[in-house]
Design a protein that fits this description.
With 285 residues, the protein is of the alpha/beta class. The chain has 3 domains: 116 residues, D-Maltodextrin-Binding Protein, domain 2 (3-Layer(aba) Sandwich); 88 residues, D-Maltodextrin-Binding Protein, domain 2 (3-Layer(aba) Sandwich), CATH 3.40.190; 67 residues, Alpha-Beta Plaits (2-Layer Sandwich). The protein is built from 8 helices and 15 strands. The strands form 3 sheets. Strands 2-3-1-4-11-5 form a 6-stranded mixed β-sheet, sandwiched between helices. Strands 8-7-9-6-10 form a 5-stranded mixed β-sheet. The chain is flat and about 75 Å long. The structure holds phosphoribosyl ATP (PRT) and zinc ion (ZN). The site of phosphoribosyl ATP (PRT) has 21 residues, from helix 2, helix 3, strand 9 and helix 5. It is found in: Cytoplasm. Pathway: Amino-acid biosynthesis; L-histidine biosynthesis; L-histidine from 5-phospho-alpha-D-ribose 1-diphosphate: step 1/9. InterPro entries: ATP-PRT_HisG_long (IPR020621), ATP_PRibTrfase_cat (IPR013820), ATP_PRibTrfase_CS (IPR018198), ATP_PRibTrfase_HisG (IPR001348), HisG_C (IPR013115), N-reg_PII-like_a/b (IPR011322), N-reg_PII/ATP_PRibTrfase_C (IPR015867).
Length: 285
């Protein structure tokens, strides 16, 4: 029987979360310290551990069938592979930055300037879209030191918290793109492999949906229930169960975590008490 080969980063910012996602899909991977290939014991999948820069290329060349990479690495690799799912982790942005003392007005600042980056392809396309002509200096690492050693007037690099820029005396001036981990696939997968991918995707979606949502339980006086139900943007009508205390009910529903913080005060004002919010492991419709 054929197996689906998935490439994930061997060691780096994507590794742990990629493996965690696979495991949350109920796929068992033996702990093979330092191995380059690992085979699941309960799902037709083989894991290839690679450098993130090689993943899109290997998926394009069918060395792997699918892979998990940062959107930035996928775009920079410029390969003919499909994005099949946005995975929501390793969020960051690719930005242009200059020395903090530089008087910066707009993107035309970079006209004929030197920009150091590990993302020459993405940067070139971005500058073209802004009608700016600059000299792109490719550096594979430690891009942030380029301005201070006089190698470039600015940099284009990944930013997450912004502390690397700050500690190198730089300021972010333009966002080139947002990025997050994505699942990519080779466009011409054979039917058997496509079927395994669909099975995997079904599980991934259930896991991702569960992460975005929380199970909410609260108690409220019966006469307040209508108002509380109106406040709750639940997925369907909530479950309402009578409490032993006369005139009170317990209400159960599912709520998007980010929305929860917006409505918590409203819920309390409307009379909700003993509010419990619990994680959901899988969500299947
Ligand atoms: O060895 P290999 O080639 O596989 O890994 P790598 O060193 O090239 O990549 P790695 O592990 O650093 O990053 C993998 C992917 O994680 C990237 O392609 C991004 O999609 C994503 N990601 C998310 C990040 C960051 N956040 C991030 N903060 N990648 C890099 N950084 C670096 C950035 O380059 C800069 O040096 O962190 C610094 C900025 O972070 P802040 O928090 O100080 O702003
Ligand atoms: Zn890399």
């Amino acid at each position: 029987m054929s197996k689906l080969k998935i490439a994930i980063q061997k060691s780096g910012r994507l590794s742990e979360k990629s493996l965690e996602l696979i495991k949350e899909c109920g796929i068992k991977i033996p702990n093979g310290g330092g191995k380059l290939i690992s085979e699941s014991t309960n799902f037709p999948i083989e894991i290839l551990f690679l450098r993130d820069d090689d993943i899109a290329k290997y998926v394009e060349q069918n060395v792997a069938d699918i892979g998990i990479v940062g959107e930035n690495a996928y775009l920079e690799a410029n390969q003919n592979v499909d994005i099949v799912e946005y995975l929501g982790f390793a969020s960051c942005r690719l930005s242009l930055a200059v020395s903090k003392n530089t008087a910066y007005t707009d993107i035309s600042f970079f006209q004929n300037k030197k920009i150091a980056t590990s993302y020459p392809i993405i940067l070139q396309k971005y500058l073209e879209s802004k009608n700016v002509q600059a000299n792109i200096e490719f550096i594979s690492g430690s891009v942030e030191i380029a301005p201070s050693i006089g190698l470039a007037d600015g940099i284009c690099d990944i930013v997450s918290s912004g502390s690397t820029l700050m500690s190198n005396g730089l300021k972010e001036v333009e966002k080139v793109m947002d990025s997050q981990a994505i699942l990519i696939a080779s466009p011409g997968l054979a039917d058997e492999k496509q079927a395994i991918l669909q099975k995997l995707l079904f599980r991934i979606k259930a896991v991702l949906r569960a992460k975005e949502n929380k199970y909410i339980l609260l108690n409220a006086p019966n006469e307040k229930l209508d108002e509380i139900v109106r406040i709750l943007p639940g997925m369907k009508s909530p479950t309402i169960l009578p409490l032993v205390d006369e005139g009170w009910s317990s209400l159960h529903s599912v709520i998007q975590e980010d929305k929860f913080w917006d409505i918590i005060d409203e819920l309390k004002k409307a009379g909700a008490e003993s509010i419990l919010v619990a994680p959901i492991e899988k969500m299947i419709f």
